[in-house]
Amino acid sequence: MLEFYSASARIVNSRRAMAECLESALGEDSQDCDLLVIHASMGHRFAELLEEARRLAPSARIVGSSCCGVVGREGVSESMKDVAVMAVRGAEHIHVAHVDDLYGHNAFEKSVELAEQLARSGAPVNMVYFLASGIDIDDNRCIEGLESVLGPEVTIFGATSADNMKGIASYQMVDETVYEHAAFAVGFSDPTLEVVTQATHGFVAVGDPLIVTRADGNRILELNGKPAWQEYTARLQLPPDATCGDTIPIGALAERLDPELAAEYGNEHILRVVTKRDDDGTMHYATTCPEGTALWLTVRDEERIFDDMDRMMGHVVARGVGREVVAVFHADCLARGRYLFNRVMKEELVERMQFPLSGDGAVPPWIGMYGFGEFARLGGANTYHNYTTALYVLYRDAG
Predict the structure, then answer these.
(1) Residue 171 and residue 173: Cα distance in Å, rounded?
(2) Using an 8 Å Cβ cutoff, are 87 and 20 in contact?
(3) Strands (E), 165-224
(4) Which residue in 223, 201, 222 sits closest to 210, CA to CA?
(5) Considering only CA atoms, which of 300, 309, 308, 305 is closest in space to residue 355?
(6) pLDDT of residue 381
(7) Which among 216, 289, 214, 206 has a CA at the least distance from the CA of 252?
(8) Angle at Cα 333 formed by Cα 61 and Cα 378, nearest 5°?
(9) φ and ψ of 353, to 5 deg
(10) Tens of pLDDT along 15-29?
(11) How far is residue 46's CA from residue 41's CA, in Å, rounded to a whole number?
């Protein structure tokens, strides 16, 4: 059976940060580790993190990503020197695949390749932890590519990597190598585990929608018949030379959901982020965006963020009655929490996630990251989200 261990730290020196995380998670038995998942803020030297992880856990497969802060059993941290790890034992149930050079135009093909690598293991994979670049990919096509090989019944959970919310470059790590446009997938085949996934955002659509009048896959060329970036920034009351870093905190775009999905989601809209723009005004959307799509601007509703979080936790806990929480993977957005002192404070929101899943006051092994997007099921289907809290709770039947 798979066993999970986690730790997080805020330490300037990258090698020391990794050593402290592994010692805290595994004690003196770091060599007895089959998988390491690493999330690290942009201030770290990623190559040094990998070198130290390999030195201390020489037989482990290593995967990881850049992010804009972490969440662990120890709580939330948003510095430039954060590291969080999840260490896993149980090699026979762990299957790792990766591809490089994944972009919007080839997201389907690269994801098929990724899934075929997992399928060649011959193992009965029942859940996939997936992480890809957070910039310039088509996340819906990634889901479609994985499902075309593994089937839609396999739950896909995970995130897309982030920088420090500038939308310039994000990084992925596989074993000894740091990438910029890669993706990895970890297939788990432990039959005693089930992953329960759910996401929520709490933002509200406002005003009249922008209409996509010209698009190519996940690239929006025109909104309302005008260059997309120009029209988008004008609606945000920003200058046309604004960067993605200027728009990401305030520029969530909303697509209307079908009523049945909206009832489950607790919101009439699903949100999208723009993490890249071209000089000609083309916007790189997070998913395929057909012409005619209506996109609303949104505002964060603090009361709703917290109410919807409590609602989500009620559903997640109810699905685990009588079962043990083995581990929690978590992807989140920096725009969520209470807005105080000119910054968004996350501590209370994280406490509302962790307390219901804790036993005897102990938070289960937990690894969370602040990234550019989240994967969680909606309407029984694997779905990509933005600006959400997404929880992936691994349950095992008690006894």
Answers:
(1) 7
(2) no
(3) 172-174, 177-179, 183-188, 193-200, 203-216, 219-223
(4) 223
(5) 309
(6) 98
(7) 206
(8) 80
(9) -80, -45
(10) 999 999 999 999 988
(11) 9
233 CB burial (10 A radius; 0-12, 13-18, 19+): buried
- Kind of pairing between the strands at 338-340 and 343-345: antiparallel
- What pLDDT is attached to residue 399? 63
Helix axes 14-26, 46-56, angle to 10 degrees: 40
Q: According to the model, what pLDDT value does residue 126 have?
A: 95
In sequence order, what are the beta bridge partners of 196?
393
Extract the tokens encoding 2: 């798979």
Question: E strand or H helix at 376, and its extent?
Answer: strand 373-378
Tokens representing residue 222 in the block: 């025109």
Tokens, residue 350: 């994280």
Determine the length of the chain: 399
- The span from the CA of 42 to the CA of 27, in Å, is 27
Strands 193-200 and 389-397: antiparallel
pTM exceeding the 0.85 threshold for the entire prediction: yes
| DSSP 8-state symbol, 359 | B
Ranges of residues in the chain with a pLDDT under 50 are none
Q: What is residue 4's predicted lDDT score, i.e. its pLDDT?
A: 98
CA distance 200 to 391: 9
